[in-house]
Amino acid sequence: MRELDVVGIGNAIVDIIAHADDAVLAHHGMQKGGMTLIDEARAEALYAEMGPAVQLSGGSAGNTIAGLASLGARTGYIGKVKDDALGRVFHHDITAAGVRFPTRAASEGPATARCLIFVTPDAQRTMNTYLGACVNLTPDDVDEELIRAAKITYLEGYLYDPPHAKSAFHRAAEIAHEAGRKVALSLSDSFCVNRYRDEFRDLARLHIDYLFANEHEIAALYETNLNDALSRIVNEVEVAAVTRGAAGSVIATKIETLRIAAAPVARIIDTTGAGDLYAAGFLFGLARDLPLAECGRLASLAAAEIISHYGGRPETPLDEYVARHGQD
Questions:
Q1: % helix, strand, coil for the chain, step of 5
Q2: Residue 235 CB burial class (10 angstroms; 0-12, 13-18, ≥19)
């Protein structure tokens, strides 16, 4: 198999995105800006009350991998869908982006996952996620040839819940390191960190080379402030990249700390996927052996493109976007 830049492993989800105001969130008891796991009945009930919606393939690692492909990277993806309407949508979208997606769809069991996203006028997104088929990923779904071919295997923290999914993570990391490759992890959400704090710490120490998080997630990992958390995580991983919204990001290693400004954007429409695309730009730089400051610059540009429109996948090819805006 031809060498790949990055293979992602995560929850294969179709996003359903609609406008909402704060009153809608309050009526349904949603925590603004957060992510809540829901069952299929709740998913159907919320969907019935949503306004006009846009349907886009998503999932955190899926968005990152699609972003990498848009930058010109060679990519693969491992994630579980069911052979149903939304599963076929997901498969079409990711393969159309040029991503290798060998995971076999389930013929029975829960439906393909979907995330109902309510976007308020301040561009905050509130997510309600029915995980469905994607949590049934097992070590048997980990394509060893795909992992060995990739310079970096990227793991999505959202998937770190069912025991067999954890086993899949560990198996993928072992295969990657046996092949002399690197492993990256996104902490994904403070919700995930608070549920699996000790396990995430062990995972970082034992298996992770590159860690991605926002400032709240990294602080939650060590139950402390950002600066102290950074001083601790660099003893466990080679590089930690921490996003801070409009304040940009911080890149930390044992020997240096870099502060990267957020790339300008004319108007923020929807913050869905901002962290995912930040990771895409950064991983692209790492796979090309670029300096960390350049990795951060690419990451900020990719995030800027994604927040300028709805959905977590690029509308403008990112290689073109970077070429056009990279010197602004």
A1: 45, 20, 35
A2: exposed
CA distance 229 to 53: 39
Six-digit token pair at 204? 């970082």
The first and second tokens of residue 53, run together, are: 């919606």
Query: pLDDT (tens digit, 9 = 90+) per residue, 50-103?
Result: 989 888 888 999 999 999 999 999 999 999 999 999 999 999 999 999 999 999
* pLDDT, tens only, 209-225: 999 999 999 999 999 99
Q: How many CB atoms lie within 10 A of CB 188?
A: 26
- CA 226/CA 308 separation, integer angstroms: 27
Burial 154-173 (b: 16+ CB within 10 A, else e): bbbbbbbeeeebbebbbbbb
Q: Both tokens of residue 131?
A: 């995980």
The answer to whether residues 114 and 16 touch, using CB atoms and an 8 Å cutoff, is yes
Under 8 Å between Cβ of 154 and 65: yes
Question: Under DSSP, is residue 153 helix (H, G, I), strand (E, B) or coil?
Answer: strand
Domains in the chain (CATH in brackets) are 4-325 (3.40.1190.20)
| Sheet with 53-58, edge to edge strand ranges | 35-37, 125-130, 113-119, 13-19, 53-58
Cα 234 off chain centre by? 21
Helix (H, G, I), strand (E, B) or coil at 115: strand
Q: How many Å apart are CA 78 and CA 132, to the nearest integer?
A: 16
